[in-house]
Amino acid sequence: MPLMTAGEYLDSLRRMKPTVYILGERVDSPTEDPHIRASINATAATYELAFDQEYRHIALVESPLTGGMINRFNHVASSIEDLVARVKINRVLGQRVGTCFQRCTGLDGLSALSITTYNMDRRYGTQYHQRFLGFLRYMQENDYSGHIAVTDVKGDRSKRPHQQADPDLYLRVVERNEDGIVVRGAKAHQTGSLNSHETIVLPTTALQEADTDYAVAFSIPVDTPGLVHIYGRGTLDSREVEGVDLGNCFYGKYCTLVVFDDVFVPWDRVFMCGEWEFAGEMVSRFSSYHRQSHGGCKSGLLDVVSGAAYTMAEYNGTAKVSHIREKLTDIIHRAETIYACTLASSYEGHREPSGTYAVNSVLANAAKIHEGRDLVEAMRLLLDIAGGLVGTMPSELDLQNPATGAFLEKYLKGVEGVQTRDRMRMFRLVEKLAMESRDLVSAVHGGGSPQAHRLTILRETDLEAKARLARRLAGIQDGPSPGLAPGVRP
Questions:
Q1: CA 247/CA 39 separation, integer angstroms
Q2: Confidence band (pLDDT; 50, 70, 90) for 341?
Q3: HSE, side-chain direction, 13 A CA sphere, residue 68
């Protein structure tokens, strides 16, 4: 199957018939809905890049399964070079669309499944890995996109899944039969679910034996009966319908709540069913890959942020002011720090028994901690450089109105040689970059909460090995730290 063009990708989505609700209304053609279309354009950029001669060397890769060239977003890493290429293509796409392009989660889920299904089969003699390879071939041969459904709604977070008053607050298996399983529950924060062909489901957390019914992983088409996509609105989304004051007018992002209302999944699409001991490994694998992905795309986004900040400084006549240049430097170094951590997590990756290469988890999580803090700080600096009109500027409709347009042309003018309309549009881009709720929250919580990143770093770090280094330099006889058994990590 040849690679899909962006147009063929859009046509493939039009042929699907998912159940969708947007702002209280059933929508039969989501690909044409203005709330969704800009986000689809962002995912379409991953298809466009495969035909761009400048980037084909990182956008395409030869598949070990099919022997043909495939889109990198359907290729699980088989080398360190593959891990590095994931980061580089994400940065390019972040620069190109200025928002989330909503395809990396699917690749991160495929990568986690590739490792964990193999490990489950080795322990239990199951056939999950062969099923997964068949599904992976299917995705590659059709050049399909997948989105990952990990985050359960969780209800009372002080309780385990099986302890919830309502057992459906974590997605679970409610029936098993000879043909497959039936699942019920919901997954939150589903980035670009309607931009995808497949919904790939993983557990959301480590589980206990009493949580066996919640240990489930599978994939189904996004228009499977019983699957309901409910659009989650953002702070600026009404402008997409109005068609004005958009900032980034062609690319966007949305998230949905996806409800699984007694959804049937055939056995050949089931990649975990009851193996609760592997739930923690599966979500941890996914999280590390996804935090690596974030570092790539968000460093690209910060390239846009620094460009917007510099342009606003030029339009305002402040580009040579020393404190403005210091703030621009701060934005740039934050982008490069995130990028460097993410590249390091790739170069320090390793081969798993399945043959799939995994990232260095500590470095991937370090990149995500930097992102959660530094990207938000970069947005603050962007607003500082741009000025107060980001929040109070009249609409472009007022610029077009003969009664008010002349006033805006006169009083919103910046430096000579820059049209008032262009200055207004750059303000709108700054507003969308810095104040769009879905992108800003994603910087903090995407790929898990900030505390999850810290816990992973502590769990994956051999503190006893570091303590031995310190004891040797201090001249202390080698031995375990007080209160720790030999070889035990805190």
A1: 14
A2: very high
A3: 14
Q: Which amino acid is at 82?
A: D
Structure tokens at 260: 């699984």
Q: What angle do CA 13, 253, 280 make, to 5 degrees?
A: 90
pLDDT band at 302; cut points 50, 70, 90: very high
Residue linked to tokens 């007022």: 398
Helix pair 450-460, 361-386: axis angle to 10 deg: 150
As a whole number of angstroms, the distance between CA 188 and CA 410 comes to 47
Chain-wide mean pLDDT for the chain?
93
User: What is the pTM assigned to this prediction?
Assistant: 0.91
What tokens were used for 280?
Answer: 């923690």
Class of residue 112 by CB neighbours under 10 A (exposed 0-12, middle 13-18, buried 19+): buried
> Nearest to residue 330, comparing CAs of 371, 284, 378, 393?
378
Cβ pair 197, 144 in contact under 8 A: yes
Mean pLDDT (whole number) for 352-359 = 97
Q: Which two tokens stand for residue 348?
A: 């320090």
Q: At 325, give phi and psi (nearest 5°).
A: -65, -35
Please state whether beta strands 19-22 and 227-232 pair in parallel, antiparallel, or not at all (unpaired). parallel
Could you identify the residue written with the tokens 């590095």?
84
